[in-house]
Structure formats: C-alpha cells, structure tokens
Design a protein that fits this description.
Length: about 190
Amino acid sequence: MLDYIKGKVIEVDDESVVVEASGVGYRLFVSSITSKEIKVGDTTKLYVYLYLRENEMRLFGFYDRNERKVFKSLISVSGIGPKVALNILSKYTPSQMLAFIATGDFTSIMSVPGVGKKTAQRLIVELKDRVNKEELGVSFIEDKTSDVVQALMALGYSKDEISRVLKKIEGLDIDDAIKMALKELS
C-alpha cells in the first residue's frame, strides 16, 4: 500500500497537485490548506490515501499524517465522501475539526459547503468516541481538563502550547482554567 509520495512538484492548483516521482507524474487531490504549503519546483513529501470505487480511482495527498487520519475518519461517516471531507479540511485544520467533534460543535461544521445539519450531527455522533479514544491521532485529556484543551485547540493553540500550561490550571474549574490558560499563553 502507498504511504507517501516524495518528488518534485510540477503543478499546483486549489484542488490538486502533480508530483513527479521516478519519472511518473501523480495527480493528488489536496485540501486548500495543503496546496498553500506547496510550491511548483520544490521537492515535497505528501502522505497519500488511495480512494478506490468500482468506476473511480483517486489519490489524495496530505501535508501531514494527522490530516490524513482525520480525512479517513471523515469519509468513514455515512454521507461524507472524499470531496466533502476535503472541503472540511480546506476550511478547518485537523485539530480544529477534532475540537469541534469532541465538543459537539455541529454549527461550525455546518458552515462547510456540502454539510447540512443532519450530516454535521451524524459526523459528531459517529466520531465523538474515536476522538475520546485518541484514534484520530490527537491526545485529549479526560474530564474538566479535556474541555479546557478542546476550547484552547478551537482557538488555534497547538498541543505543545497547551501542554505547557496544563500543570498551572490543575484543580481549577473550567472557566477559571480557560482564563488562566489564556493569560499564560498570551
């Protein structure tokens, strides 16, 4: 099975990139976030997912493994195909999506083209347990701290930044913990 493709970038647009590896040009469909990271002429490494159906075969490329894990989880939800999953990952980072899933924020997910209320709610119901079990590649801490971590991730803070302040907010209620964490992170 393919894990990644490393080669020279030949072409880039909003939906796809062409990477030449060993004399073969591979067209990979990517999120707009990934396409912005790639420049024509550069050598790049993209993690891939091969999507196979009866009459269709497509390669999807991802800048990192977490994006690929979230993509695979998204397409496992009934009613979400690869195009909608890429739309989601074009609007939100993997950590933002995981925070929305973990907190049950279906309204943010509904803002993605092609995702209605029922689909957003189904996505949360089907993936919430996986987020809590760390199957999507992002660590979530249990109980009150988990809510604080999810809130900070939704605000765009990285796992490393958040882990630096966790010890300082232990024992505080959620509101005080978030306030203290924001104060420490600013």
